[in-house]
Amino acid sequence: MAYETIIVEIEDYVAVVRLNRPDALNALNAKLLGELADALGTLDANDKVRCIVLTGSEKAFAAGADIKEMSEKSFVEMYMQDFFTPETEALLRVRKPVVAAVAGYALGGGCELAMMCDFIICAENAKFGQPEINLGVVAGIGGTQRLTRFVGKSKAMDMHLTGRFMDAAEAERSGLVSRVVPLKDLMKETMAAARKIAEKSQIAVMVVKESVNRSYETTLREGILFERRVFHSLFATEDQKEGMAAFMEKRTAQFRDK
Ligand code: CAA
What we know:
Strand order of the largest sheet: 1-2-3-5-7-10
Bound molecules: acetoacetyl-coenzyme A
Protein name: enoyl-CoA hydratase
Oligomer: single chain
Shape: globular
Largest sheet: 6 strands, mixed
CATH class of the largest domain: Alpha Beta
Number of helices: 12
Enzyme class: lyase
CATH architecture of the largest domain: Alpha-Beta Complex
Structural class: alpha/beta
InterPro entries: ClpP/crotonase-like_dom_sf (IPR029045), Enoyl-CoA_hyd/isom_CS (IPR018376), Enoyl-CoA_hydra/iso (IPR001753), Enoyl-CoA_hydra_C (IPR014748)
Order of helices and strands: EEHEEHHHEEHEEHHEHEHHHH
Number of domains: 2
Radius of gyration: 19 Å
GO molecular function: enoyl-CoA hydratase activity
């Protein structure tokens, strides 16, 4: 796939999508988000892809929406274009797991993009923040809602109101990221996690993603009912029979996504 602002590589059933606007610290412009949406849709439909890793450079995952592109826009333009909604909805439609590997800055829309992934592994040099307040605006692609659910009201208010950055240790402590690893190991660790996911039954993997995401969309009671029903339904799959038989026969399961 030939893109100008992202690089896509597929290896061992894992696709790595690298944001690639080094001169702008991977700031998210319309071109990049359009290409990202297109790539993710294509990878979601590709049988050779079972897990997707989204990453940036060692200096920046993404330093936010592109301020230079955005600065002269009017309310009418922002509203009529429904600024970044179609592109970000495309990311949220991906049914395969998307893991964010974050090094350096994940600010504004960059932090929001990482939070739209299924989980975040970050390097020790990662810095998360929602500094839109310094520009006289607020987060625009989910940051006030998602950060609050990740880290709670007090810390989310602190981040959005002061615009301060959170380092990797604080991000792990507050539940924003699942793991912190040395910068040199970021891709190795993330690829190992992605390959592990790629080995599982893809049906069960997609059901996990749907079920965990459901916890953000509904009440606890409804979420638990949803989980119970999809759990029951997995007993209609060959992968469930194979997974449990393999356990009892003390061998590795061979999942066939059936
Ligand atoms: N948009 C456009 N360009 C950006 C950018 C952004 N968000 N962030 C960095 N750049 C550009 C800089 O303008 C600079 O380009 P030039 O060399 O052409 O001047 C280049 O990337 C390197 O940046 P710096 O020289 O500033 O690098 P630094 O190491 O001194 O600082 C930084 C790094 C702290 C991340 C700083 O660049 C910064 O504060 N960037 C803006 C962060 C921000 O405010 N993000 C929120 C954007 S709004 C948003 O995201 C809204 C939303 O929710 C949708």
